[in-house]
Design a protein that fits this description.
There is one protein chain. The chain is mainly beta. 10% of the residues lie in helices and 33% in strands. It has three helices and 16 strands. Strands 1, 2, 3, 6, 7, 8, 13 and 14 form an eight-stranded antiparallel β-sheet that branches. Strands 9, 10, 11, 12, 15 and 16 form a six-stranded antiparallel β-sheet that branches. A two-stranded antiparallel ribbon has the order 4-5. It is globular, with a radius of gyration of 20 Å.
Length: 250
């Protein structure tokens, strides 16, 4: 579905959520907080490689797009298998996240708790200097494709996603589009409190959580997944060091 704008924001166009491109193991991307991540159209083979005397398509190009979030009734098997965009473009677009570019007088900022609980204390402190909660979400770090990836800065609202989904990207290569691969990995902030008492000199903490079914995902979200708020500044705020990057000219 097409995204609606937040209250107090004005839409300037809708599109499809682009994340990053990997060409010959060189990665370039757009933060989900930036308008450059919202492309007016979804299309494969979206890059040309140019040298001094010619430009050409490259078979080494992989582009990655934010996928639609997994629904309660779905598992990873509910997403299409490797699909040709040329043969069924509407099926492909059905599983690509939509976006909207919005203009507002507000400034947006993500605040993370780094725990399984929402950062209510930090939000209350910020509210005293002109910030309000816009929405809550889950603390997203970055996404990888075929071994390389891209993410969003933690102060940006693109790092606080409203929905958690273990299926997070769609990869295009040529006309082929796929959502499920052992290469695809998304990284999220976890609740650190359960590590209390762990010896830091021992091997890395290792724990597996199934996220196949809705029940599995609900348990993971409740017990391990980091939470966040996206805050909006509705009047001139006092800079609070440690919470956000403040524009000195704001």
């Amino acid at each position: 579905a097409v995204v609606s704008t937040q209250s107090g924001h004005y839409g300037r166009g809708t599109g499809y959520s682009f994340m990053f491109v990997d060409v010959s193991k060189n990665v370039a991307g757009q933060s989900l907080s930036a308008p450059g991540s919202c492309w007016r159209e979804f299309y494969v083979n979206n890059m040309m490689e140019c040298r001094q005397t010619f430009c050409t398509n490259t078979k080494a190009e992989y582009s990655f797009w934010l996928s639609t979030a997994i629904e309660d009734s779905m598992t990873h098997d509910s997403y299409p298998q490797s699909t040709s965009y040329a043969e069924d473009p509407e099926l492909v677009k059905r599983f690509i996240s939509r976006c909207a570019v919005c203009v507002s007088d507000y400034k947006l900022m993500a605040v993370h708790s780094y725990t399984k609980d929402l950062p209510t204390t930090e939000a209350a402190s910020l509210s005293q200097s002109g910030w309000e909660i816009a929405y809550s979400g889950y603390s997203f770090s970055f996404q990888t494709g075929a071994g390389r990836g891209f993410g969003s800065a933690f102060q940006g609202h693109g790092s606080c996603l409203k929905l958690f989904s273990p299926i997070n990207i769609a990869q295009t290569n040529g006309q082929d589009v796929r959502w499920v691969s052992t290469n695809f990995k998304s990284y999220w902030i976890m609740d650190y409190s359960h590590l209390d008492g762990m010896n830091p000199y021992e091997a890395a903490y290792d724990e597996d959580w199934s996220v196949v079914t809705k029940q599995d995902r609900d348990a993971f979200i409740a017990k391990r997944l980091g939470k966040c708020y996206v805050m909006k500044k509705t009047k001139k705020a006092i800079a609070l060091r440690g919470f956000y990057y403040a524009d000195p000219d704001a």
